[in-house]
Write a structure and sequence with these properties.
Structural class: mainly beta
Helix content: under 10%
Order of helices and strands: HEEEEEEEE
Largest sheet: 5 strands, antiparallel
Shape: globular
Number of helices: 1
Number of strands: 8
């Protein structure tokens, strides 16, 4: 039996397209066909108007840091080997806020409002997750 990994997402029917796109290096979000609201996390209805007419679309992969935390202590594997690491809420240019890890950044350079872009980290052969890094020169 494979060892349980606490860093792997639970992939359900509603989120399957999101994770398949991530494996291909694409960031998806959902948009309501009735009210036009964009949303993340994936769900079978619009969080704004409750319509069930939501569709997938590719996001630009650009956003800004809303808030962040530098994690210095986490005893759970595999996180203990990663400290310090940065967890952030990123406001995507399309509107939704997404919780991610920020990579390739010195914690002393972090700032609310920092421009970031999506990258992808392969955790297993089946699971790739979106992460964000600072947008350089823009």
């Amino acid at each position: 039996m494979a060892e349980h990994r606490s860093d792997l997402p639970t992939i359900e029917a509603e989120s399957q397209p999101f994770w398949e796109a991530a494996r291909e290096g694409r960031l998806l979000l959902q948009r309501c066909e009735d009210c036009g609201a964009a949303q993340h996390y994936p769900r079978p209805f619009c969080a704004s108007c409750w319509s069930e007419r939501v569709r997938w679309e590719e996001a630009s992969g650009k956003g800004r840091v809303y808030t962040y935390s530098v994690v210095h202590v986490n005893d759970l594997p595999p996180f203990a080997a990663r400290v310090p690491y940065v967890v952030a809420a990123v406001d995507l240019d399309e509107g939704p806020r997404i919780m991610v890890n920020l990579v390739d950044v010195d914690p002393s350079e972090l700032a609310v409002g920092m421009a970031v872009v999506v990258a992808f980290e392969q955790l297993t052969e089946e699971v790739t997750v979106p992460v964000f890094r600072p947008a350089r020169g823009g």
